[in-house]
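Hello,

Following up on my earlier ticket. Below are the two sequence lines again, exactly as submitted.
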Amino acid sequence: MSGAPSMEVRAMGLSFNSPVLCASGTFGYGREFAGLCDFSRLGGLVTKGVSLEPRAGNPPPRICETASGMLNSIGLQNVGLAAFIADKLPFLRDCGTRVLVNIFGETPEDYVRCAEGLGGQRGVDALEVNISCPNVEAGGIEFGVEPQMAGELVRQICGATDLPVVVKLTPNVTDIVPIARACVEAGADGLSLINTLKGMAIDARTGRPRLARRFGGLSGPAIKPVALRMVWQVAQAGLGVPVLGIGGICTGEDAAEFLLAGATLVQVGTANFIGPDAAARTAMELERFCDEHWPDLPSVAGLAGRLA
Amino acid sequence: MPREYFTAHLTDSRELGVGYRLLTLGGCAALAASRPGQFVMLRGPWGRDPVLPRAYSILSADGERARFLVQRVGRGSNLLADAAVGEPITVLGPLGNGFPEPEASDTVSLLVAGGCGLPPLHLAATRAAEVRRGAQIELLQGTRSSGQLLSPLLDELRARELRLWIATEDGSAGERGLVTQLLQRRLEHLHPGPCRVLACGPTAMLRAVREVARQHGVQCLLSLEAEMACGLGACLGCAVEAPGSGYVHVCSDGPVFDGEEVWP
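Thanks for your patience. The regenerated structure is below:
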C-alpha cells in the first residue's frame, strides 16, 4: 500500500473521521478546548456527564496526582440537562466533530428523563451512559456492578430514545463480561470501557487522605494494562457491538494497542490534561503509526482485533 | 488575549533564595499581553510521569521572554527547578482572569505578598508603574525570615515608583510581625482615602487579609492557588467553596476573586 491509511470508522450507524475520541470528564463541554485542539482530527467528543438536575460536586481537595496517573472525586459536578441544552449544546452543534452526550442519574427515572430530553436535539449523535453511579433506590449499590440491574437500566434507557446508546462500564467488578453481555442484550449499541478504577491516596506527613472524599477514580497511563485486558475480554466475548477502549491512552501507539485488543474506537482521557491537543495529536500519530508499522492495511479500522 | 498551547525553551534558571528558582523561558510571545494575575500550565518532557502540568503565575512577560518563580514543593516543581537550560517546556496560557484595574486613578493599591505569592503582584506593580497615570502602589511583602525574601525581585521593584514594606516573623528584616499587621497599619494611615487590597499567598494569610480589609471597608482581591489538572475549566478539580451553596473554580472563575466571593 502507498499513502496514509484511511482513518474513517463506521460504528453504531455513524461514521467517524477518526477512531480517536475525547473521554467524558476530560474535555468539558468541548468549548473549553476551542482553538487549542483541532476538532476536525477527532472522531468525536464525549461531554462531561449530564444529569437531570445540576450538581455542585464534592468538597475539595478533589484531585491528586499519583504515579503515572491521577485520582479524582469531582462528584459529577455539572450544569444539569436544561442548562446543557440551552448553554452548552449550541457550541457543540457546529464544533466539527461527533458529539456523544454522557448521562447519569441516581434512579432509572433520572436516566430515562435525561435520555428523553436529549432525543431529537440537533447536535447530539449518541448517548454514553455512565452506569458507575449509586442506585439510590437499591441502597446505593452501583448500577454497573450487577448484570441484572445494569441490564434493566439499559433496557429502560434504550426504550426511551432513538439515539445510539453506548454504555460505559466500570472496571470495579469481579467479571466485566457478564455485565457487558447484559447491557448488549438489553439493547446497548456500544460499550465503552473502562471507567476509572477506585483508589485512594494518603499524605503520610499530615496523616490525612489526599481527597476530601477519601476515595477517587484512578485514571491515566497507570491504568492502561487493566483497560487493555478488559477491552480484550469484552471484545473476545463477541457481543456484536463496537467497543470504545479507554484507559491511559497518550499516544498513537497506545491507541493502536487498544484497536489490536478489539476496540473499534478509542477515547483519550487524562492525556487531555497533559496538553489540550492530546487527542488530535494521538489521531495523527495513529495514522503515522499504522502507515509505518502496518503498511498493508488500507484503513486503521483494519487493526481491530488483529492481536496474535 | 487568546490562550495558546506552545513549546518554549528554558533560557535561564537561577537560585533565588533557599528553595526558590527563577526560570526564564524564551519563545513566549503569546504571553506578552498577559494581565497581572494570569497564569500558565507548565510541563517539561516528562513522558508519562508525572502526568499533569503545573500551574504558575506569570511573573513577567516581555516580548519573547517570560519569567516564573518556582518553589521546590513536590515532584513537578523539582523537575522544573532542575530543568537544564535549553530544555523544552510546554506552556498553556495565558489563563484565568487576572487583577482588574482600579476604578479610580487616585486609588492606592496595597499589594500584599506572602512568601512566594509575589509574582502576580510583582507583575501588577510593574505594569501599573509603566502605565503610571499617577498610579499609587504600595507592596507589602511578608515572610518567616529574611532568608525567604526574594531580594532580586524586590530590588527590581525598588527601582520603580512604589513604596515597599517588609515584615518578617522573626524580625530579621523589615518589621517584626505578620504582613497582615503591616497591612492594618497602612490602612489606618491611609484612611479615609480610596484604597484597595490585592493579595497572594498562603490561604491562612489570605483569610486574614480579607478580615483586615473588611474591618476597613476596603475591597480586597485575592489570587488563589489550588491543585488543578487542566487550567481550562474542564476537569473541575480546583474547586473552592463559595458563599451560599456550591463552588467556584480557581482556573476558570479566578484565580483572582473578590474576597466576598470565596470561603463562606
